[in-house]
Task: structure prediction
Amino acid sequence: MSDKTYIVGVESSCDETSCAVVADGREVLSNVVASQIDLHARFGGVVPEIASRAHIEAINTVIDQAMSESGIEPSQVAAVAVTNEPGLIGSLLVGLMAAKTLALVWDVPLIGVNHIYAHANAAALNCDQIEYPAVALICSGGHTALYHCDSPSEMELLGSTIDDAAGEAFDKVASILGLPYPGGPAIDRIAHGANAKAVAFPRSLLKGQPLNFSFSGLKTAVLYHVNGVPGANEKSKTAGRPIGIENFSQQQIADIAASFQAAVVDVLRIKLRRAAEQVGAKTLILGGGVSANSALRAAIAGLADQLNCTLRLPELAYCLDNAAMIAALGYHYYRMGQFAGMDLEARATVRQ
Ligand code: KG4
Ligand code: ZN
Result:
C-alpha cells in the first residue's frame, strides 16, 4: 500500500465540470474537465441556468472517468475537496452535492476550498513547492486580484478590480471586435505579430488605490475607437475614422486587439510590481484563465528577472478552471485537519 495521500478534487464553480485525483498535493494522477464553452458561445458569456443543468448532466461521468484514470481505488482516497466559493451558486451546488455524497459513501473527510486561493496554488501542480513569501496575481473571467501569500493556505488580499475582471474585459472587447467567445484566446491569437502601439489606449492606474484595478474605461475606449464617440463632432479625435467593426480591415482589427492587450498587460505588470516590492516577494505567481495569455506571461517573466524573483506559471491546463488545483489546495487543509461538515454551504461571493 502506497503511503501517498490521495485527495479527490471537485470543481463546478463556473462553466467547467471537473474532477481530479492528486497525490501529496502536487502529483496529478487524473484531471478530467468537461467544458461548456460551446453551450455558452452563442450567448457571448456564461448563462447560469444553462451552466447548472450542464454540470448536472456531466458530473457523474467526470467523476467516474477521473477515478478510473487515476488508477486508485476509493478505499485509498484520504479526503474529498470541493470548491464551495466563489462562483455561480447553481453551479457550485452541483459539485458540492456530489462531493458531499462521495465523502459520505467513502467515509472520508470533506474539505471546502476557495476557488481563487486554489488558482494561486495551481503553479505547484506537477512541480516543486512554491517559495514564500509570494505575490499571486489571479486573473480570470470573474476575478482580478493580488494576494500576499505566506503559504498555500495563508492568503491576504492586497487589491482587486473595482469594476470588470481582466478576462471579462478580454471577452467584451473580443465581442466588440467581432471575435469569437471566449475572447481571451481569440485576442491572444490575432494580436500575435500585430502592432501593439497602433492605438494609445488608456492605462487606468487608479490614483490613491495603488493595488486595485479598473478595466471598464479601457473597454469603453475600445468601443469608442470602433464605433465612434457618441455626440462627437468634426473636430473630435475620432473624426474621419471608419465607424463600425465591419469597416476595419483584418490588420486594423489585429492592431486594435494587440493595443488593447498591451494596455491590460501594462496595468497588470505595474500593479504586480508594486505588490511584490511592498511584500518583499521571493516568488511571483500567476493564476486564472488570463494567465494563459502569451503577452502577459512574457511581460511577467521580464518583471521577475528585474526583481530577481522566481516566476511560477501554471501549466496551460491548470491556468483554466480545473479540479486538480482544488485537490492540491485541499491537501494542505487536510494536513492541517481543516475539515468541513456536511452543512458546508456554497457561497457566490468571496469571503475575505
Ligand atoms: O479561470 P477561468 O477559466 O474561469 C473563471 O474562473 O473565470 O478564466 C476564463 C477567462 C475568460 O475570460 C477567458 O477569455 C480568459 O480567461 N482567457 C484568456 C486567455 N485564455 C483564457 N485571456 C487572455 N488570453 C488568453 N490566452
Ligand atoms: Zn477560475
In short: Residues 250-279 form the longest helix (30 residues).
